[in-house]
Design a protein that fits this description.
mainly beta; about 100 residues; 5-stranded parallel beta sheet; UDP N-Acetylglucosamine Acyltransferase, domain 1; 6-stranded mixed beta sheet
């Protein structure tokens, strides 16, 4: 977590990785086994489900919920909720396929 910023009220589960330069704003919640890649920004009150991977330089806007065992591609902008078990990418983030089911 060197160089990462985690604001007050954030809840981080077990075995999570929050990489260099990542910013986790107030009241975010990560369940277990979440991976936040370098330079990702999670604005306030973002929920990330178990086992989900957030790609490098991704921005998750305030209040979005990202489901469990999903993957968000690098450089994506997550502006709406993302369900469980999907790969989503882009600016505005769109689901491109189901994974791990």
């Amino acid at each position: 977590m060197q160089g990462a910023i985690i604001q007050s009220g954030a809840k981080v589960g077990k075995h999570c990785i929050i990489n260099t330069g990542a910013t986790v704003d107030h009241d975010c919640e990560f369940q277990d086994y979440v991976h936040i890649s370098p330079n990702a920004t999670l604005c306030g009150n973002v929920f990330v489900g178990e086992g989900t991977h957030i790609g490098a330089a991704t921005v998750a806007l305030p209040g979005v919920k990202i489901g469990k065992w999903s993957a968000i591609g690098a450089g994506s902008v997550v502006a709406k909720d993302i369900p469980d078990h999907v790969l989503a990418v882009g600016n505005r983030c769109k689901i491109i396929k189901t994974i791990g089911v």
